[in-house]
Design goal:
The protein is mainly α and 171 residues long. 74% of the residues lie in helices and 0% in strands. It has a single domain (3-162), classed as Arp2/3 complex 21 kDa subunit ARPC3 (Orthogonal Bundle). Mean pLDDT is 85; it is low at 166-171.
Length: 171
């Protein structure tokens, strides 16, 4: 396992802890920023396919561990989100800022809708959708996305800088 993969997993672990603790600190019941979704979006826009999908699965699994949903629901959604964003990636190139917030807002809305549908189907709870928490969660995710993108971009920049130019071969 490369050092970068281990560091991305550690960042995702820290994001999972923040994602779990922040709603309790601010007394948020249903609306919470989805920090791990922002990490998945970054991975979809900047990583290789296999490595990014595997790291997205790890992020989804961490989200599964910190939520009371059926097993592997968020793991499936994270990989599905990775594939969809990766497919549309040429139109969604973003390095952070307002663009990443807009992508995160839209992805959070769709992600929450699909999660609600799948949760209702697998848990037998039926389809129950509340728009206010959905919008607040998407808004929180959009606010957090530039920060998550900045952390992961800084991590990636350290590895690009450390690698330097390709070594020259002797002739």
């Amino acid at each position: 396992m490369s050092l970068r993969i281990a560091l991305v997993v550690l960042v995702c672990l820290a994001l999972a802890v923040l994602e779990s603790v922040v709603p309790f600190i601010f007394h948020l019941r249903a609306a919470r920023p989805d920090l791990l979704l922002s990490a998945v979006l970054y991975l979809a826009l900047h990583d290789d396919v296999v490595e990014g999908a595997a790291l997205s699965a790890v992020a989804g699994y961490l989200s599964d561990l910190t939520s009371a949903t059926p097993a592997f629901l968020y793991t499936f959604l994270a990989v599905l989100t990775f594939v969809v964003i990766r497919t549309a990636g040429s139109a969604l190139r973003t390095e952070g800022g307002v663009q990443s917030a807009a992508v995160a807002f839209g992805a959070s809305l769709v992600h929450s809708l699909v999660a609600t549908l799948l949760f209702g189907f697998f848990a037998g709870a039926g389809f129950h959708l509340e728009f206010a928490p959905l919008l607040w969660s998407a808004f929180g995710t959009a606010l957090a996305a530039p920060l998550v993108f900045a952390v992961l971009r800084r991590l990636d920049a350290g590895f690009v800088h450390a690698e330097g130019p390709a070594p020259r071969r002797l002739r």
